[in-house]
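User: Second chain of the day. Same drill as before.
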Amino acid sequence: MQLVRWEPFDGFNKVQSRINDLFGDGFGRSWDNAATRSESWYPAVDILESKEAYLLRAELPGMKKEDFNLEVKDGTLTLTGERKAVKPADGVEYRSVERVNGKFVRSFTLPETVKHDGIQATYKDGILEIHIPKAEEAKPRQIDITVQ
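Assistant: Same format as last time:
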């Protein structure tokens, strides 16, 4: 299984990383409103494989089922969603925000040897588990030869 990842701001992230190395991680954070800041993020995903299936585990803490979507199309499994910012109570404001919110897309190219109609997903305790069964391998068929 091959992971397909698109990072539109990869160059900017490298520049920000260099600035953070020089001035510390807090540099630049005061320039925006932390309570409304939304950055590009991707949930962490583990990929496991057994003889019978692939298993993907995606970390989606604090999200509800309605906050994300899973679909298979043209051999690609795509997980999309949005983690919304939690607004503090009246009279309370953020001093530091480390959790990232916003929309995300994760795509995985599936091998041709999986059963697309057998894919199942469960969500529990902030972990989305996607079970992708493998199709049985085509077994060679013995052909009888007639001698004439």
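The helical segments are 10-23.

User: Great, on to the next one.
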